[in-house]
Write a structure and sequence with these properties.
The protein has 734 residues and is an alpha+beta fold. It folds into five domains: 92 residues, no CATH class; 160 residues, Rossmann fold (3-Layer(aba) Sandwich), CATH 3.40.50.410; 99 residues, Sandwich (Immunoglobulin-like); 243 residues, Rossmann fold (3-Layer(aba) Sandwich); 98 residues, Macroglobulin (MG2) domain (Immunoglobulin-like), CATH 2.60.40. The strands form ten sheets. Strands 19-18-17-20-21-29-28-27-24 form a nine-stranded mixed beta sheet. It has a five-stranded mixed beta sheet with strand order 10-16-15-12-13, with no helix packed on it. A five-stranded antiparallel beta sheet has the order 30-31-32-36-35, with no helix packed on it. Strand 37 and strand 38 form a beta hairpin. Helix 4 packs parallel to helix 5. The longest helix is centred in the first third of the chain and has 24 residues. The two termini are 39 Å apart.
Length: 734
């Protein structure tokens, strides 16, 4: 049946258009010597105008589907993994003795009860009982619960629904928002009666939520393994976190977990050998804890030898420079190059020394970390163009820069160069040469500093603060006003503060693809007192490795590859970044970079990276992780015969469907409200039957097809216009 809904204005316009067109058609027919041919053309014209006018009146073709079956009541019950949580009290309607059972057992008892028989009395209704979110025998990585899909599917199949009963804990983690299905039910006039199963309170549990370990570490060095634990216990728990590898080597750390909170902590792990190793972090099951399956997590980490290329630039051979030179030159993992621009004697010469700043981009691009001492812009020092190159190296090539100001105050001149934005602190322009201290002042670690691998001088986080308290103090510090936004302050002056608080002296920040460190004292060499090289060498070695970490994730002759996040889970989009070079080592100007990705199940795909025209040989791309396990990446420059860069990305398995989580009755309440139903509490099951029996008969299903957007109507209109135009041309009427 055709239904039109014109407004008074469109009705008047349409009738006027029809009358005018009809009048013009009759007039043309009477004047034409070929009335038969003209009659056909004018009929096409009138039909085309008629179709346009009808479309203007918003036509709908409506069909009424009268049900051929008895009214049906659907009972949908949740069969997901979260329903195995044991926190559902049985009401007296389902059990003679009160008890706590799993949500799934509660549902089974409810379905087996005689509560539903009155709905089928005298054949008044038909019952449809269907499970949803049943886990497959071989669970997929993203197996979970979709509350919207089963309801939408039911509405498509059934034409005579009287009501829908939903037995669920309300937890969903896949698909569209459940309220979308409730809106469809409202349009159909089918009420929803959800029955929430389970407790709103979380079960007593310690949950190891995440472990964010780096993808690789350097053989012989410590790596930091951060982790997060959530407690839903009502008491404080003293426990021990254990980190062990496949060979049984173990590290442990005592933890104090407050009640009903999340804690963020980390452990140190020393990489002993090359190659990938599987580690497991675990915490023991606490007294009263009901879920033990989430107390451990396994992950992979690779050990590799490393050769970090470091450039140190300074003017005078002050004590800080001398001992920094010794620390880095004796580090077996560091390849040191020095540029000492002595203002009176000229550049120093000798082993590991160069006499001028690298003039070619390919010569500068090989450095992973640049240390800038008491040097700035001026005669015999750096130029503004060289400062621009350093900034480009950090932002585009993932290198690091360390600012080590000194008593000459030369770094104050960097404020007027492109390195100004890289400085993580605001310097005092009135005290360029810094501040002297009559007595030794200590460095105090901040909260971030106590957790950072940069400032980890002990073998455990417990002993680290005590080591810093025992370190010799400093007698000079840089003229720092405050730290800039987006930075991380690791250590502050122990005795001095200004209107912004304690003066920040060790500050880090990200800069493009690279990292920046500001060290506002020149007395780290004093840390050798009584312990020789123990802390001094360790600190600078950690700085060099931390700043070059991303740059050396996967490096070859022609391509350097790094990616984020390092520890993805299935469903995560991976951002790939690559720096490509020509055969001479300069950033690639013309050419393509491709990544061949092999998934854990053997599937392969090629990703062509897009070039960033504003950066030095920088390319980027994305792909999606859909399986846990080892993803192999091979990066190469198109047409290059060099061996591709190979690396492995480890995707952690994740269960999005978990037990022990609290029920979410608020989701079911919103669905019931939208669908014009009512939430039925477990102790109100008898009332549910009465409410459903009181519902009216389902109304016939009405199907509406809006003709103004139907392709067949538009095709007919275009055909009529084409016939009319062609006919006029053939008949000679222009």
């Amino acid at each position: 049946m055709l239904h039109l809904t014109p407004t008074p204005l469109t009705l008047a316009i349409g009738i006027s258009a029809l009358l005018l067109t009809g009048g013009l058609a009759i007039l043309a027919w009477r004047r034409s010597p070929h009335r038969r041919r003209t009659g056909i053309l004018e009929t096409c014209r009138c039909l085309a105008v008629l179709v346009v006018v009808i479309l203007l009146w918003q036509p709908e073709w409506r069909t009424i589907l009268h049900p051929e079956t008895k009214p049906r009541i659907a009972i949908l019950w949740d069969d997901s993994k979260s329903m195995t949580t044991a926190d559902a009290p049985l009401p007296l309607e389902l059990s003679d003795t009160p008890s706590i059972v799993t949500r799934a057992e509660w549902v089974k008892k409810a379905l087996a009860a005689n509560l539903w028989k009155p709905l089928q009395a005298d054949g008044e209704n038909e019952l449809i009982i269907q499970p949803f979110a049943t886990p497959p025998k071989d669970p997929a990585p993203l197996t979970g619960t979709d509350l919207e899909a089963p309801i939408s599917s039911l509405l498509e199949k059934e034409t005579n629904l009287r009501a829908v009963i939903l037995l669920s804990d309300g937890d969903f983690n896949l698909g569209q928002p459940p309220v979308a299905a409730a809106q469809k039910m409202r349009l159909r006039g089918v009420p929803l009666f959800p029955i929430p199963v389970g407790s709103k309170s979380r079960l007593p549990d310690l949950d190891l939520l995440s472990v964010t370990a780096p993808s690789y570490g350097i053989v012989g060095e410590n790596v930091q393994i951060p982790f997060t634990i959530r407690s839903s216990l009502d008491r404080q728990v003293r426990t021990v976190a254990r980190l062990r590898d496949e060979s049984g080597h173990e590290r442990s750390k005592e933890l104090v977990i407050p009640p009903n909170t999340e804690i963020y902590d980390s452990m140190l792990w020393r990489i002993e050998k090359e190659g990938a190793a599987t580690l497991e972090l675990s915490i023991p099951v606490a007294e009263g804890e009901l879920v033990a399956s989430n107390n451990s997590s396994k992950f992979n980490i690779a050990g590799r030898p490393e050769r970090i290329r470091v450039l140190v630039v300074d003017t005078l051979p002050r004590w800080e420079y001398r001992f920094l030179h010794n620390a880095l030159s004796r580090d077996p993992g560091v390849e040191l190059t020095c540029l000492l621009l002595h203002p009176q004697l000229g550049p120093a010469t000798g082993k590991n020394f160069i006499t001028e700043f690298p003039s070619k981009l390919e010569d500068l691009a090989k450095f992973d970390v640049i240390f800038l001492g008491d040097v700035g812009v001026g005669t015999g020092q750096l130029t503004k163009e060289q400062c621009t190159l350093i900034r480009g190296l950090v932002e585009n090539q993932a290198s690091g820069v360390v600012f080590l100001p000194g008593p000459q105050g030369n770094q104050a001149t960097l404020v007027d160069t492109d390195l100004s934005d890289l400085l993580p602190v605001v310097l005092d322009a009135e005290h360029k040469t810094g501040m002297a201290e009559p007595l030794a002042s200590p460095l105090n670690l901040t909260t971030e500093g106590r957790k950072s691998l940069l400032t980890m001088l002990g073998n455990s986080e417990e002993e680290n603060p005590e080591i810093w308290r025992r370190l010799p103090g400093f007698y000079w510090y840089a003229p720092v006003v405050k730290a800039k936004g987006g930075t991380e302050v690791l250590a502050v002056h122990g005795n001095r503060r200004d209107k912004f608080g304690p003066i920040p002296l060790i500050v880090t920040k990200p800069a493009g693809s690279g990292k920046v460190l500001f060290m506002g004292i020149d007395s780290a060499w004093r840390w050798r007192r009584g312990v020789e090289d123990l802390y001094h060498y360790r600190f600078w070695g950690q700085v060099a490795r931390w700043m070059s970490y991303q740059r050396n994730m996967a490096a070859g002759q022609r391509v350097r590859l790094f990616f984020t996040p390092e520890r993805p889970v299935p469903g995560t989009n991976i951002t790939l970044n690559a720096n490509a070079f020509d055969p001479n080592g300069a950033p690639l100007q013309q050419g393509n970079v491709a990544i061949d990705v092999t998934s854990p199940d053997g599937r392969t795909q090629r990703i062509e990276l897009q070039k960033n025209d504003t950066a030095w040989g920088a390319y980027s791309g994305r792909f999606k992780i859909d399986l846990p396990g080892a993803w192999k990446l091979h990066a190469s420059v198109a047409g290059s015969e060099d061996k591709p860069v190979e690396t492995t990305l480890f995707a952690q398995g994740v269960e999005i469907e978990k037990t022990g989580q609290p029920a979410r009755p608020e989701v079911l309440e919103e669905m019931a409200k939208v669908a014009k139903g009512r939430v039925i509490q477990p102790n109100q099951l008898a009332d549910l039957v009465k409410e459903i029996k009181a519902l009216p008969e389902p109304r016939p299903l009405e199907n509406r097809i809006p003709l103004w957007s139907d392709w067949r109507v538009l095709t007919a209109l275009i055909s009529l216009l084409a016939i009319f135009w062609t006919g006029r041309k053939l008949s000679g009427a222009f």
